[in-house]
Specification:
The chain has 18 helices and 98 strands. It is mainly beta. The strands form 32 sheets. It has a 7-stranded mixed β-sheet. The protein has a 6-stranded antiparallel β-sheet with strand order 11-20-13-18-17-16, with no helix packed on it. Strands 71, 75, 78, 79, 82 and 83 form a 6-stranded mixed β-sheet that branches.
Length: 1526
């Protein structure tokens, strides 16, 4: 033991011990200086002999305070050394009582010290104290002691627990001073008593940290984030992100209710990722952060006190069962805060100036200053206003009296922001941006404006350099209603008007012509067309019918509303008097679409023709004429008298029903219909047959008295919006309700209350082409801001057509002269400026020096020419001061470093065609022919232009397709087989080789003996002849060492390139060839052009495969290597090798196989099925092995068919099989092999179908399918083998039939297959089928006839007569409800709100948006009305002008964005949809008078006179009137 400290069993350290021995695990003692502080009653009576701790030592005491002088205490002594070096310790100070009496109070006081965090490897302080007892026997045994924390009764006793036995013992009555009372508190034990410590590390302090971790903070440095998440199992995913909690967040709490499980991923600021799986309750540690996890029966709870040591991503792993709900809450730090800068330099060096502060946005995470937009993101952040103070107030030299008396900013305005005009908007509609440049300018006494440093303007906010523009919606197509069908029976056409409507509701151009709805379509009237039976000529028809035809005038439809009568219907009676009806419609001809539209009757101004008339065909049977004899020789008077008598007796007036009601609702009237009736036939007769004097009176009655329902009320059409080129007329259409006809009140209702359809509020007008006109665009920017420039604009000849489109025409089509397209601008002289000329000579004669750039002062005139002027004219502009290093010859005795080549040991394998490939020496390359190659040789300490290149040991010269550039690299255009070989880069004494091989070139690379001798590898001696041959053989092996691996990788090329395509579309081999090639090209885009492998990785695999590459383990290693190369180097890694979850099969059969081979990688990986297009191990008449993913056609019987399914993934996937989407029953004939492959013994017709192999693990699943078709097998197979005999009826039938048919081969065969075109697909989506006819034909073309199918078997396999089509699932766009209206303000009381638009299938499952790419996507954003955007610019009054005349007077006013109703001021960007009124302007821009006129030109002249400045010329000229009497 050291330091005199005694350690005894059961005894404790009570005296002041300056050193404590803590025994480490390795047996070495580490001494930590700690203290046990004691109270007054423990002090010894004898004085201490240690001078540093002697309370009587005057040097150790401070002067007695006033309070001590009133008591009996001496002054306090100096503070002791801290009890701990880190983590918070305690220090004490002592005082003594100067009286023999008892002094009131304590003789010791404490304070905290060493309040800095301990290093991570320092360990826990309480644990150190427990481990110090490890070498002391307790009850006769040594123990490893662990600390016991948070004792509620005695937190300051040293209680420890023996590891393994669980024995808890109090090893000391009190812990060392500075030990924490509780783990989650700053309170510390001092002399065995727990003392309160605030977050300010002061004893007795009650200061607490706020939720943001700031001591005595107000919570403004962080924000509370709360939310909830609900899992969606139906999406097909295995996991999903709940929330991303940023670095330094605190007080995190998540509660998951449901069957799913939580897990956490982390990502540090350096990009290091880690993850944590929470499988049981307890404490976890991730990135120096403690996580408390509690797993209960129905929920999981995760608590993190924080602060978080990294960005934490909390995810949910889905399990089967119901959806889960996660609620979370945490405090997120505001990582971007405003920080006030120091004062900028003074604006002047003397005479009184000003200086400003500014505020910069500071990133607390990275400790860097960032752009202001980051701080504007937080509403809690309020940017501090700049502070302005006077500076350099001492007087200037006497030569400058102006600055001596007047402050800098008294005579002219402060520096200000000046902005250029806004640029053109980036888009013409739909929301774009426009920018402008903003600079700080300063104005001198003469009114000249010059640019200056930006800090001078920072006292006011910098004006915006970006703003939104053209935020209105883009024009869209609006289709009018369809016209009636052009025919009244059968099939015809119908038309409609399609207009391009902009955001103002006006017809204009700009719509996408490819999305224009069609204006014509076929229509079908369900009335059959037939010829009239009535084919008699007019002369042969009845008299009344003949008269009707002769009198009927044909009325055609015109562009003015006209009544168009229809044909008369047949007479209502077949004999006697009757009536006939017809329809009369008010119609108009639409000239634009040449269609007829029906209108209400009141639109036609003429009198409506009659819709009914009397008719009479033949007398009815049994009714005679006037006399049976029909004599014609009677007198005329007798005939007339007989007619009158007959009229009076045969006809009479009679009421027959009522007319239609005058109103459809609300109360109308009906009039009784009076007809002249034939009493005998009871049929209507002509009214002239009845006596008019006997006509009965008119009768009326009420009708339709019920109230009217709501109906559409339309206003008058407005005038046309355009005089030509199709415009729009609008009208008001409202749903109104009138309680009664006599009521004057009409209520306006919602549109839903009126019957559909709603009358159109718009219609096209002036549908004819406009004459060609000139269209001028805005002037562009001036080519020069000074010295004379030009600005141009575009002038085009355009014509607006009747369909709304705009046609661009040659200039000769437009009348008159074209407007000018350019004009002069920028005529003012340019200011002089520095122009750089040349570099000076190097500052040294050898070694490294510098050169400076020389400059002269030049001015540009109006003619654009430059001339040199006096450098004084450029004194206001900073002269360019640029230097550059220069290097001359090496000085004597200088040491030059040796050159090196930065080679890369890589193997490059070209995977698909690319334009150009970059390679670096030191490795190998296997490239496709006709690829452009750039071979680089990066060097250090060597000039690239001096690099030499060799090929096969001989100098490399430029060829027509090969060149060596000045930068030292080799470029080969369209590499070919002759370019393969060994390329050597030489830089000084350093050299590196590169092996280039061409894919498809079978010739192995080799080296000659002479090249080996030249390379310097040959040693001197006779025995070296043998070593040369050995080196030749060894070098040839190393040149081709990776050939086998590359060859096997290229064999798997097809399976990887088409893997995603086949996984998504398992029936792709049934598609037509063009579609397959197109989709293959699109899938290849996700495969990298070149695979880059490290030579060490390939060497390891070569070593593992040294026993041969033929086994299944070797194939799996190669496939795993290819999977890793394409995944790590593809731009879209996950889409290359990981099929999407949508490919997961919804069926799962009972055949389950779990492989036992471990994956080659430890990284989690979605399952992948390797597809090969070739058959494996096929032996005729015995066994056929086929990889799943290709169609299988059995034309000959086999004993066994094996469908091989090779699946990779981590965890290892399980393999299941289904047939036609249903469970595949397992029996003695159909079973699953240990490798996961499916074996079918004696396959027959009953085994035909669609077989699907599905590989699953916890990360996802993938499927691959094959269609099995058997054409040459009837029922069970007749193969003679071990398992199948050639007996039975089926076999005898087959042998008999085969003998009776003579099959032919080759071109002489007269039989051939003939196929018809495919039928249309049976379904438009979701998978359908197509069929076609396949026949066996005999004879030459043109004279062939049909034969039996078996006669064509010798010509090849029978073409398929069915195939699958339209395999994409049926999908549609769906959208959520519109969100709240709180987007960006785009107009008065107009904002935007959004909704989520997604693609879903027929089951309502959300799928990838690409599956709906062919459908029109609904809009996800639209305008909405909100009171929050009822904003306006409010301007204050102008200030008084700073000058009464001259050019430099200005005045300003306040411009704010305020709410219309509340008047509350808000941020200006909310009002930016309307131009901002100017906040300052020039004023009193008047001439200050002619020569001889005395007047003041500034408002400061009174002060000039009071300060007696009038004698100075510059003041007297501007204050002439005030200084006239001085």
């Amino acid at each position: 033991m050291t330091g005199g400290c005694l350690w005894r069993t059961g005894l404790l350290l009570l005296a002041v011990c300056v050193e404590v021995a803590v025994w480490a695990n390795n047996g070495d003692a580490v001494f930590i200086r700690e203290f046990t502080l004691i109270r007054r009653d423990h002090l010894p009576e004898e004085p201490l002999h240690d001078g540093s701790q002697n309370p009587e030592d005057p040097s150790s005491r401070t002067a007695r305070s006033e309070e001590d002088r009133d008591t009996l205490w001496d002054a306090w002594g100096s503070w002791s050394e801290c009890s701990r070096t880190c983590g918070g310790g305690a220090s004490y100070s002592l005082r003594r009582c100067l009286s023999s009496k008892t002094c009131e109070g304590q003789n010791i006081k404490y304070r905290t010290c060493s309040n800095v965090d301990c290093p991570p490897d320092a360990g826990d302080f309480r644990a150190q104290q427990c481990s110090a007892h490890a070498d002391v026997r307790y009850q006769g045994q040594f123990h490893e002691w662990l600390p016991m924390y948070n004792d509620p009764d005695n937190p300051c006793t040293l209680k420890c627990k023996a590891k393994g036995s669980g024995l808890v013992v109090e090893l000391a009555p009190k812990v060392l001073d500075g030990t924490r009372c509780y783990t989650e508190s700053l309170d510390m034990c001092i002399s065995g008593v727990c003392q309160i410590v605030g977050c300010d590390h002061e004893l007795g302090s009650t200061a607490k940290e706020d939720n943001c971790g700031i001591c005595n903070g107000d919570g403004s440095s962080c924000r509370l984030v709360r939310g909830h998440y609900k899992s969606q199992h139906a999406s097909g995913k295995t996991e999903e992100t709940v929330v991303v909690i940023p670095f330094k967040s605190r007080h995190v709490r998540l509660v998951l209710k449901g069957p799913d499980h939580l897990y956490v991923e982390s990502k540090t600021l350096e990009g290091v990722k880690d993850e944590l799986v929470l499988d049981k309750s307890g404490q976890y540690h991730l990135e120096n952060t403690t996580l408390d996890y509690q797993k209960l029966s129905d929920k999981e709870v995760l608590r993190i006190t924080g602060p978080l040591g990294a960005d934490f991503t909390v995810k949910v792993q889905f399990t089967s069962g119901a959806d889960s709900v996660v609620q979370y809450i945490y405090y997120q730090p505001i990582i971007h805060r405003w920080r006030e800068t120091d004062f900028f330099p003074c604006s002047v060096t003397c005479g009184g100036g000003y200086q400003l502060t500014s505020a910069e946005c500071f990133d607390l995470r990275s400790g860097r200053v960032v752009v202001d937009q980051y701080c504007h993101y937080y509403p809690e952040n309020v940017k501090p206003k700049p502070k302005l103070q006077e500076c350099n107030m001492e007087p200037c030299l006497d030569s400058d009296g102006y600055k001596q008396i007047m402050p800098y900013d008294l005579y002219h305005p402060l520096p200000r922001w000046e902005s250029s005009p806004w640029t053109a908007c980036s888009t013409s509609c739909g929301g774009g941006i426009q920018s402008r440049s903003v600079s700080c300018v300063e104005e001198d006494m003469q009114g000249n404006i010059t640019p200056t440093e930006e800090w001078k303007c920072l006292y006011s906010p910098k004006t915006a350099i970006l703003q939104p523009c053209n935020t209105f919606d883009c024009p869209t197509w609006l289709a009018q209603e369809w016209s009636p069908c052009t025919v009244t029976c059968g099939q015809g056409l119908r038309y409609r008007v399609v207009l391009c409507i902009d955001h103002r509701g006006l017809h204009a151009g700009g719509c996408n012509p490819t999305t224009k709805p069609h204006i014509k379509e076929e229509c079908l009237v369900t009335v059959p067309c037939y010829k009239s039976i009535d084919t008699l000529p007019v002369e042969a028809k009845p008299v009344w019918h003949k008269q009707a035809i002769e009198l009927e005038e044909e009325v055609t439809v015109t562009e003015e509303p006209t009544f168009i009568p229809g044909p008369w219907q047949p007479c209502s009676r077949t004999c006697g008097a009757g009536t006939q009806q017809r329809t009369v419609k008010c119609q108009v001809l639409l000239s634009f679409s040449q269609t007829v539209a029906d209108l209400p009757d009141d639109e036609c101004e003429e009198v409506k023709p009659a819709t009914s008339q009397p008719c009479y065909r033949t007398p009815c049977s049994g009714v005679s004429g006037r006399g049976g004899d029909g004599k014609q020789e009677e007198e005329e008077e007798e005939e007339d008298e007989g007619k009158t008598l007959q009229r009076e007796e045969l006809h009479d007036w009679e009421y027959e029903g009522f007319t239609e009601c005058s109103e459809s609702c609300g109360g109308g009237v009906q009039e009784a219909v009076v007809i002249c009736l034939n009493k005998q036939t009871r049929e209507a007769a002509d009214q002239t047959q009845c006596v008019s004097s006997r006509r009965p009176p008119q009768l009326l009655q009420d009708c339709k008295t019920q109230p009217c329902p709501p109906r559409w009320e339309t206003g008058e059409w407005s005038s046309c919006s355009a005089t030509c080129g199709v415009g729009l007329m609008t009208r008001t259409v409202a749903c109104a309700h009138q309680p009664s006809r006599n009521s004057n009140h009409t209520a306006v209702l919602k549109d839903e209350d009126c019957p559909k359809p709603k009358p159109s509020p718009v219609q096209a007008c002036n549908r004819f082409d406009c004459p060609p006109m000139w269209d001028t665009r805005d002037w562009g920017q001036c080519s020069q801001s000074c010295g004379g420039g030009v600005q141009r604009r575009q002038v085009l000849c355009k014509q607006r057509l009747a369909d709304g489109s705009i046609l661009e025409l040659p200039d000769t089509f437009c009348p008159s002269k074209s407007p000018t397209n350019q004009q002069p601008c920028g005529k003012q002289d340019c200011l002089p400026q520095w122009v750089t000329t040349d570099w000076s000579q190097c500052s040294v004669t050898c070694g490294n020096g510098i050169q400076s750039l020389q400059a002269i002062c030049r001015k540009q005139g109006e003619n654009g020419r430059y001339w040199t002027v006096d450098p004084k004219n450029c004194s206001l502009i900073s002269k360019p001061d640029r230097v550059r290093p220069c290097s001359l010859k090496h000085c004597e005795n200088s040491i030059k470093p040796d050159p090196t080549i930065l080679a890369q040991k890589k193997v490059y394998i070209q995977w698909r065609k690319g334009k150009k490939i970059q390679l670096v020496v030191g490795g190998y390359a296997y490239l496709l022919p006709w690829t452009t190659v750039v071979l680089r040789c990066p060097t250090r300490n060597f000039r690239k232009g001096h690099i030499r290149w060799l090929k096969e040991g001989k100098p490399l010269f430029s060829l027509p397709h090969l060149s060596i550039t000045s930068l030292g690299y080799v470029k080969i255009q369209q590499v070919r087989a002759s370019d393969a070989g060994i390329y050597t880069c030489i830089a000084g004494q350093a050299k590196e080789h590169f092996i280039l091989q061409i894919i498809g070139n079978k010739q192995k690379l080799s080296v000659t003996e002479s090249w080996l001798l030249q390379s310097g590898q040959q040693k001197v001696g006779r025995h070296d002849v043998m070593s040369t041959r050995e080196r030749l053989q060894e070098l040839s092996i190393s040149l081709n060492k990776y050939d086998n691996i590359v060859e096997h990788l290229l064999e798997l090329k097809g399976s990887v390139q088409h893997e995603k395509y086949i996984a998504d579309k398992p029936h792709s081999n049934e598609k037509n060839k063009s579609n397959l090639e197109e989709e293959t090209r699109s899938s290849e885009l996700s495969i990298p052009v070149v695979l880059i492998a490290d030579t060490r990785t390939l060497d390891e695999i070569t070593h593992k495969l040294s026993e041969g590459l033929g086994g299944p383990r070797g194939e799996q290693l190669i496939a795993q290597l290819l999977s890793e190369l394409t995944t790590t180097q593809g731009e879209t890694n996950e889409s290359t090798l990981h099929p999407p979850e949508s490919a997961e099969s919804s069926t799962q059969g009972p055949l389950l196989y779990k492989p036992t081979i471990k994956a080659h990688t430890s990284r989690a990986r979605n399952p992948v099925i390797i597809q090969r297009s070739k058959k494996v191990g096929a032996a005729p008449q015995s066994e056929m092995v086929v990889y799943v993913g290709v169609p299988v056609l059995l034309q000959k019987p086999v004993a066994t068919l094996v469908l091989r399914c090779e699946a990779l993934g981590n965890p290892e996937p399980s393999v299941t099989w289904t047939k036609n989407g249903k469970e595949l029953p397992q029996n003695s004939r159909v079973d699953l092999l240990p490798s996961g492959s499916l074996r079918i013994q004696s396959p027959g017709k009953g085994d035909e179908g669609f077989y699907t192999c599905t590989a699953r693990n916890r990360l996802g699943s993938t499927s691959l399918s094959s269609w099995l078709q058997i054409t040459g097998v009837k029922g069970r197979s007749c193969v003679q083998g071990n398992s199948v005999g050639a007996t039975g009826p089926a076999c005898s039938d087959r042998s008999n039939s085969s003998q009776s048919v003579e099959l032919c081969q080759g071109q002489a065969c007269p039989f051939r297959w003939r196929v018809d075109a495919w039928s249309p697909c049976s379904a438009t989506c979701g998978g359908g089928t197509q069929t076609r006819s396949v026949r066996c034909m005999k004879g030459p073309h043109g004279r062939s006839r049909q034969a039996e199918n078996r006669q064509c078997l010798g010509t090849g396999r029978r073409p398929s007569n069915t195939r699958m089509c339209n395999l994409l699932p049926c999908t549609r766009w769906a959208a959520t409800s519109w969100g709240p209206c709180h987007g960006q303000c785009v107009g008065p009381s107009v904002s935007t709100h959004h909704r989520h638009v997604y693609c879903q299938d027929t089951n309502g499952t959300k799928v990838s948006y690409r599956m709906c790419s062919g459908l029109q996507r609904p809009s996800s954003v639209r305008n909405c009305s909100t009171e929050a955007c009822a904003l306006q610019w409010r301007v204050g009054p102008w200030t008084q002008c700073t000058a009464t005349c001259g050019r430099h007077g200005f005045q300003s006013r306040q411009v704010t964005c305020t709410h219309l109703r509340t008047g509350k001021t808000t941020r200006e960007h909310h009002c930016m949809w309307r131009p901002r009124p100017p906040s300052w302007q020039r004023c009193n821009i008047l001439s200050c008078g002619r020569a001889g006129e005395c007047r003041d030109s500034t408002r400061y002249c009174e002060k000039v006179r009071q300060l007696e400045l009038c004698p100075l010329p510059q003041f007297k000229s501007r204050c002439c009137y005030s200084c006239r009497n001085t």
